[in-house]
Amino acid sequence: MTNRTPQRMRRDGRAALIFLAPFLIIYCVFLIFPLFKAVFISFHDWELAGGYREWIGFFNYEDLWYDDYFWKALGNTMRFAAMAVPSMTILALLLALGLHGHGRVRAVLRSVFFSSSVFSVTVVTLVWQMVLSPDRGLIAPIFRSMGMEPINFLGSVEWAMPSLVIATLWWGVGLPMALFLAALGQIPDELYEAAELDHASRWSTLRYITLPGIRHTVLLVLVLQIVGQFQIFGQAQLMTKGGPANTTLTLVQYIYNTGFRDWQVGYATTIALALFVVMAGFSMLQLWLGRKGDDQ
Amino acid sequence: MQITRKTALAASVALTTLTAAMPAAATDITLYRFFGDCEGEFGGVTDLNEAYGECGIITVLTNKFNAENEIGANVITQTVDWGAYYDLLSATYSTGDMPDVAVMHASQLVNFTDRNLMTPLGNKLMEAGVDVDDWADAARNNVTNNGEIYALPFDIHAILFHVNVGLMKEAGFVNEDGSVRLPSSPEELILMGKEFEEKTGQNYIAIESQSSEGMAVRMFDAFVWQQGGDVLSADGKEATIDSPEGLNAATLIKQMYDEGLTDSGLDYGGAEQAFIGGRAGILVNGTWGVNNYATQAENGAELQEYTALDFPTLYEQPATFSNSHSWTIPMDESRTPEEEEAAIAFLKFLDDNNFAWAMTGHLPVHTSVIESEEFAALPHRSDFAATPSMARGIPAVKNERGIYDAMISEFTAMWLAGTSPEDAVAGMQSGVERILRRNNR
């Protein structure tokens, strides 16, 4: 403490800056700069190919406000997130609770449940298309054996979105499960021993020891899931192409179509910024709620 | 030091002598295309008699060009999945990595030519010896913008009725001369469809009905044209879908699904399987399937006696949906004259082999090939001989893919989400207007 002279502090500051520099440079080049560039592009009619750029002020934002497809895609994306985020979190938590602890079977099952995460979205969607196809799919014979006509999952307005959710759960449950497993390992064994001495029921143990012990991880998983699931693209693009009748058209898919199919990069960027605002809003809300819990 | 210099000198002399003795270095050019990848089957094949199907024929043509051309050109093919093709091709303009030759649907060409992204080819092709005056008018118009030719047309492909003649006999829809009877009015389509199902227990029609290919939209377009209407104004600036003709066409197609004439659960592969498996009398699909289905029928598929017929005229005038594959040279300032020469030579070679491509089922673009005996001798071609004169596309318009996708999602909602024909045409109209609003700015 006695050494904290102004020179020393300046030197420390410089050293810190040098250590932080690689990160800061990457952060600025790949995040801060593109963000501001995106805002700049969004004020243009900016085409993907051919170099056509024209300053159009707030036209893209005005267009966005009156764009039915945007609102539909936003609604679909929120519907997807509302289904996928809680179910993913609960499923990952249940798996982690079941697979936490010692034993060879648990270790093997942990790897099994995590393994689907290593596949690319192309493989995952191909697998699920094969499973769900009404005439050649894996589950079609099950329907037929019960004397029922197989449901056309991906072609039905009611089932298409839940089908995407199920494929996403199967694909993505590994990482949150691993996070929960790590968090469960952090809870001191003494707490469980004390609970056992007090003859606490399993439910009470879960409610008063386990869940409070991992609440920061729950919060982390929720925020990661919200950010991740709001950006759903591959599953919808490859399994349903946004159909049937636009019921699974998601925001990122709409951004992709606008930018790459219609070449309107300016407008696509505007939609992307809107998505950024929505995602940031939800994540902030989640963090705020979590912090409020801490204060209590 | 001296030794090093001497060695270097010797080495450079040797290198120069070697280079001079070698034939001209190969000029590599890149080819961007869809049609699939069949290197496994046709990788080393240069004999066109062994090739079949779109993928096989284009692969063998490319191999043959690489083996036989005398200017040292070497085409390196990059196959792109059909669904992502135009997205990737467009993106190459941002990365500066444009291919030297790219396949393109005629309907997409205006997107590129309007922005000066394609090399004008008229004079270059003529200098290379391509007889552009022998191209059929429709094909030539497809690749011409403001009087300039921007691509080499390779085919006209159109929607046909692929027919299971065996099932048609069972239903009593075959005339004494052996010709298949198709409906000639909207009412007859529904009546014949019901009768067919009663007699055979199978669906009358199989058609891709999901949200990917938009086969039903192609059918819709054809029915609108048959009534004298169109989906866009001739200048491509206004949508004209929400019209009496549009409503008639939508109502008929909706009725087709409601009456159970077709299975709304079929995707592209499912519709093909239903037809090949003998579970549908008619498959609505393009000319590209003819070769394939004929082969399947010969090889003992459930499909008994296959034929392909002109899309039926249910209203006043014949019309069917069509498009055209063409070959372009994307504009690229950094392309060397040798590379351009190689690209033009490849295009000329493809043009010379227009007949080979017609073996897929596509219609050739050279009138001399269309009128040739060898073309007439190809199986089933005489059964859809009227198709070239019926073939139509929507007016040239930028963002045709966006327009098409908007139509698909609103139109398929009729059987996938239960919307009414009125709502479907209104939805298509407003979806397309939105894209045109941007185009017209």
TrEMBL record, chain A:
Superkingdom field: Bacteria
Pfam families per UniProt: BPD_transp_1
Membrane protein topology class: Multi-pass membrane protein
InterPro entries, alphabetized: ABC_transporter_permease, MetI-like, MetI-like_sf
Residue intervals of the ABC transmembrane type-1 domain: 74-286
Predominant cellular place of this UniProt entry's protein: membrane
Keywords: Cell membrane, Membrane, Transmembrane, Transmembrane helix, Transport
Subcellular location: Cell membrane
Transmembrane region(s): 15-36, 80-99, 111-131, 159-184, 205-227, 265-289
Membership in a protein family: Belongs to the binding-protein-dependent transport system permease family.
Designated name of the protein: Sugar ABC transporter permease
Organism this protein belongs to: Marivivens donghaensis
The organism's taxonomic lineage, starting at the top: Bacteria, Pseudomonadati, Pseudomonadota, Alphaproteobacteria, Rhodobacterales
Automatic annotation (TrEMBL), chain B:
Keyword Transport among record annotations: yes
Signal sequence segment: 1-26
Lineage: superkingdom: Bacteria
InterPro entries registered for this protein in UniProt: SBP
Record keywords, A-Z: Signal, Transport
The UniProt record lists the keyword Aminoacyl-tRNA synthetase: no
Family (UniProt): Belongs to the bacterial solute-binding protein 1 family.
Protein name, per record: Extracellular solute-binding protein
The organism's taxonomic lineage, starting at the top: Bacteria, Pseudomonadati, Pseudomonadota, Alphaproteobacteria, Rhodobacterales
